[in-house]
Inverse folding.
């Protein structure tokens, strides 16, 4: 199954709610991804541009998109970005295939 890296930031209101009522949001994230047949591999909070990171496994892009849309639509996040991760073998295959693409730069 494909892996996905998500970066998120809570709204100030969400942080205020968590301060008043601390809870393990990794458990919630796990239930979201499991509802589409996936798995949560990690959930971390961080300092910096994003408040946290998730490493997910999902059956396909549509399943991960459904989870991302549900989370984003919930209003607790100020930002949510997801990146599809490629294995080394997938990247090697893409590199070999790229050599077969007849690309022409703009204006050439």
């Amino acid at each position: 199954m494909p892996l996905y890296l998500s970066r998120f930031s809570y709204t100030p209101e969400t942080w205020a709610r968590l301060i008043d009522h601390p809870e393990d949001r990794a458990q919630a994230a796990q239930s979201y991804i499991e509802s589409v047949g996936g798995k949560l591999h990690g959930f971390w909070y961080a300092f910096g541009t994003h408040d946290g990171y998730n490493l997910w496994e999902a059956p396909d892009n549509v399943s991960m998109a459904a989870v991302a849309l549900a989370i984003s639509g919930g209003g607790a996040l100020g930002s949510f970005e997801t990146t599809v991760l490629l294995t080394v073998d997938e990247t090697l295959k893409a590199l070999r295939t790229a050599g077969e693409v007849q690309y022409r730069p703009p204006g050439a």
